[in-house]
Design goal:
Length: 359
Amino acid sequence: MLDKIDITEVVNLIFAGKQFRREEVLYTINTVTFDMIRNRFAARVSVREGETQEMWIDRKMFSSIFDSLASTPGGQPFIAEEGQLVAVQNLIRIMRGGEDRKGGARNIQCGILSTEIGKKGREITGPQKAAMELKKLIQEVRVTRPEINEGKIKVKRLLNEKYQHIFQGEMNSSELWRYNFFIYQLENMRKADYRRMDDITRKVDMSNLVHFVPVDPKKEFSPLLVNPNLNIELTSFSETFEELMSLPNYGDFAREFAEKVEQLYQVEGYSEETNINNMIVQLLLMEGYITTADVARGSVIQKVNRETIAAAKYAVVQYLNTLRKSDSSQPFAEEQKTSSSLKENSSGRKRHTGTKGRK
């Protein structure tokens, strides 16, 4: 199918024969060619009989022929973004390290990849070659940027530290390691201080970005065992956990799990559902129902039935509810204690004053 698509032919069908005015002169587009060096389409236009010239297809030409309802930078090369030249100049300045040439962006490595997917006979080999070149670039970046490996080492250390009760400091799952390094990088993006490229003194307002919540740069990364697939699976299999607990012997089963819930690690910065499911996975790993390979695969229902998952969730939910109650009652207890202390001090002052008066 790909060898039958000629993009230049498609563009010619769109523009050939169309007329437009510029500076009170009527032009007619005869043919369109593609300049591979400049990555733009050029139109051969006729002004008067026998007189032709070449013009770039740009926003102005497009809008004079068609009704351009919106700005679409992705529609290049037909439409140019408003202020595109200035934006590119700002990008180049930042990539050079700013005005003082000391900015961190100067360490960003760039490269040019060509999939050659539009060339006949290279639909398969072109993307494969590009992927190998990209892999080579990533390997070069890892050598020149030691903080990447430092981040991976930090993530592995946190996994062993937070889940000491499971791995005993010997976490050897490369899948868990890679997954947590991925979400570690995502969290670092939320810790970034976004500034305008044209004025670094002005912050970028990210409040309108849906589901984007900035993270305090000082917050320590909280590693996870549960991945998105496993999160969905555990939630769907434990929806009726309270009903199952009403059956005979299930309460005793949940109490066995409850004996170990205090050892579990509670993640921070995630939803309550994710924290509960992550604690369930810890219990299942501690009791030997599943292995880290099952966790990395994102499915445990082949080894654990619904009743076991329900008992583990019941133990976790009851424990978290107990913690909440103790946290909510603590301020009241402190208030009562403070009030009682004030009364005692007040009573003491009155007795002291009375004694002095008798003397």
